[in-house]
Design brief:
With 342 residues, the chain is of the alpha/beta class. Helices cover 38% and strands 22% of the residues. The chain has 11 helices and 12 strands. A 10-stranded mixed β-sheet has the order 3-2-1-4-5-10-9-8-6-7, sandwiched between helices. The protein has a two-stranded antiparallel sheet with strand order 11-12. α8 (239-252) packs antiparallel against α10 (290-299) and α9 (269-284) packs antiparallel against α10.
């Protein structure tokens, strides 16, 4: 489990095992390498921890989630102090006996990922995970960095930030998408993308894609099972709302030249109209006081979260693959129905 009582539930046996009175099953050890900026660090930690806890409970699998970070990710002294004793470094990670990793994205500071201060550590982590984990899940920027390091696939800058909830189609059958509907909606938030044709040419297996957002979930065996998320199934319902308001603030402070585009398929009509009016006023006379109005609009909006059950299914399937790899269940068994191993 993560260091701290908050995630102690992650190490409990699953519901089915407890009900049957069986002994605690062998444990799956997962490392969460959290590279998100300070403002999103705790939320990202909780989001992935909750998904893993739900999957472990539903599948009757005992999972321990441990926290790690890259030293090259810029942090304030206050955040480093809060992480001290809870987050391990890469040396600790490699000695932890982990079965799998979840590696989050980060906020990029340069157009070229290889110029990021954490690039060397992250590239080393890709190599280590390939040979030392049963599976690693790479999220957003971490997915971009992994395919760049592995195969030289360059992410492409987008004309406009890809932000919103996009309709995604399941385009392949695989245990990772067992139980995922043919069409789902998933949140994406990024300024760069990976061309599907480039991924296919290098042997990546596309599982879900969006006509608007491009590749959503794809994988490759390295021989470790590498699973890549370009989107953010872990997001809370208000994640895109908070990001939009953050970008509005950057525009009002002069840190961003243009007001941010509205997230696609997320706001209702009334909220979109209110934010459009705010953006028009900000263009005429950007003032910090407009953030008060932004907060008022945000408070009146109830965010949807249509992706949550699909996110739970994806992580449950991933935990199921780890259980198979560790021999906790017999070959051929799979997650069915409510996710209990049968």
């Amino acid at each position: 489990m993560a260091d701290g009582a908050r995630y102690s539930e992650l190490s409990r046996p699953g519901l089915k095992a407890r009900a049957a009175g069986r002994a605690r099953p062998p444990r799956i050890e997962i490392g969460l390498v959290n590279n998100m900026p300070d403002a999103a660090l705790q939320a990202t930690e909780r989001q992935f921890a909750d998904l893993v806890a739900d999957a472990a409970a539903a599948g009757g699998v005992d999972v321990r989630l441990r926290l790690f970070s890259l030293s090259g990710v810029p942090r304030t002294a206050l955040t480093r102090q809060a992480m001290d004793g809870r987050y391990g470094d890469m040396t600790a990670l490699k000695a932890a006996g982990l079965d799998a990793l979840i590696v989050t994205g980060a906020e990029p500071r340069t157009p070229d990922l290889r110029a990021e201060p954490f690039w060397g550590e992250l590239a080393d982590l890709v190599d280590w995970a390939r040979d030392n984990t049963a599976s690693t899940l790479w999220s957003c920027l971490a997915a971009h960095a992994a395919v760049l390091h592995l195969d030289g696939i360059e992410r492409q800058p987008l004309a406009e930030k890809c932000a919103g909830v996009f309709l995604c189609e399941r385009v392949a059958d695989d245990p990772m998408v067992e139980g995922v509907p043919a069409m789902t909606r998933m949140p994406h938030s990024r300024r760069n993308g990976l061309p599907i044709v480039d991924l296919a040419a290098k042997g990546y297996h596309l599982l879900t894609e969006s006509r608007e957002a491009g590749a959503d979930v794809f994988l490759r065996r390295e021989p470790s099972l590498f699973v890549f998320f370009q989107g953010h199934p872990e997001y809370d319902a208000d994640g895109l709302l908070r990001e939009y308001c953050r970008d509005v603030g950057r525009h009002l402070r002069g840190e961003q030249a243009q007001p941010p585009a509205l997230p696609t398929g997320y706001f209702d009509t009334a909220t979109e109209s209110a934010f459009r009016a705010l953006a028009a006023e900000a263009v005429r006379a950007p003032q910090a006081r407009l953030m008060i109005r932004c907060g008022e609009i945000a408070a009146a909006f109830t965010p949807p979260q249509p992706w949550k059950p699909h996110a739970q299914t994806l992580i449950r399937n991933w935990i199921g693959q780890l259980a198979l790899a560790k021999g906790l269940v017999a070959e051929g068994l799979k997650m069915v129905g409510d996710g209990v191993m049968t």
